[in-house]
């Protein structure tokens, strides 16, 4: 079957993104930035619970993409398994220590942190294997529960209310959202459909799209849509999306990197029902004795407390830098760049102390016409931080980042 090319072509060159949308999305999306980038470049391999190749009517890639676009599923519930292996460096006890500190701050003084704050809790999805229970009833009611050892974290959107509940610490987060399409973008990607919508945005003349047979996922017959970059220099190997043949609903995703090996991201339903969930699924009342933190209290605490743990969140600083975000190149070789406004790059030597040495050990030092910088690499996303404070990041090779920095000098 010949590759299908979308009519929506990516424009080469630099494109300025609207700053208001970035600021609004940063709070919830930036904590799962790695997941978001993976979503935009994700690939799917055959389902784990593949029980054979169903005999389904023939369909073209163009027809299958249209089937996904026309899918009108608004009610569902099920279990999603997500495994992420970005190849991040082993931080030893540092990661657990930071998590414990956040937990203590959230359950303790109440001035600036809450273990139920979704912007912090959902970062756990960026590594390891997790089981999620998901439910949705239209655009205004969703529930995502992260199942842990003897504990559970739930994020519930019901109308204008957003609730986060961490059973381990009996902590509750409460916020509100406007019932608008832009505010709904604040919800992090969690289901195969979320990832598919992002992945298909990459379909242009730099992309090959084909139908590669059928599979069975969560007991349902599905087609497999395979997406591959035509360009060299991308860290993405291929995309394959398992699409329910009856509803057009994406059921499973797995990212395979160009370097080979295990999947970077594997997201798929193990159980799914398209019946309307009970209204009680989205009802929430803070348990007796729970510490409830309002969203505004978190912001106030960070701005006015002198404690280091109550300083502005990293994603808030990043959001300021994203005001100048530009996209370079096209298709799978697109590179995001912005200026942090801080010269000197990473802290090194005596000025950087132990932190500078630690950060330097995680990256590779590079040189070019732009000067010097440090490249931080994962199995999918690479980022270059130059000595003059500029950042270049994308699902591209280290050499591609250096070339981009040289061209921008």
Summed up:
The protein is an alpha+beta fold and 409 residues long.
Structure description:
By secondary structure, the protein is of the alpha+beta class. The protein folds into two domains: 41-304, outer membrane lipoprotein receptor (LolB), chain A (Clam), CATH 2.50.20; 334-407, no CATH class. 25% of the residues lie in helices and 32% in strands. The chain has helices at 19-29, 33-40, 61-70, 94-107, 118-121, 181-184, 192-200, 295-304, 314-321, 349-362, 398-407, and strands spanning 15-16, 75-84, 128-137, 141-148, 151-158, 161-166, 171-176, 207-217, 220-229, 236-244, 250-257, 265-273, 291-294, 326-328, 335-339, 364-368, 371-377, 382-386, 390-394. The strands form two sheets. It has a twelve-stranded mixed β-sheet. The protein has a seven-stranded antiparallel β-sheet with strand order 1-14-15-19-18-17-16. Strand 9 (220-229) and strand 10 form a beta hairpin. Helix 1 packs antiparallel against helix 9 (314-321). 39% of the residues are buried. The model is unreliable at 1-51, 91-111, 180-186, 300-316 and 348-353 (pLDDT under 50).
Beta-strand fraction estimate: 25-35%
Low-confidence stretches: 1-51, 91-111, 180-186, 300-316, 348-353
Distance between the first and last residues' Cα: 43 Å
- How many separate helices? 11
Helix content: 10-25%
Assign the structural class, choosing from mainly alpha, mainly beta, alpha/beta, alpha+beta, or little secondary structure: alpha+beta
Strand elements, count = 19
Strand order of the largest sheet: 8-9-10-11-12-2-3-4-5-6-7-13
Q: What's the overall geometry? A: globular
In CATH, the topology of the largest domain is named outer membrane lipoprotein receptor (LolB), chain A
Overall CATH class of the largest domain: Mainly Beta
Identify the CATH architecture of the largest domain. Answer: Clam
Number of domains: 2
Biggest sheet descriptor? 12 strands, mixed
What Rg, in angstroms, do the CA atoms define?
22 Å
Mean pLDDT: 75
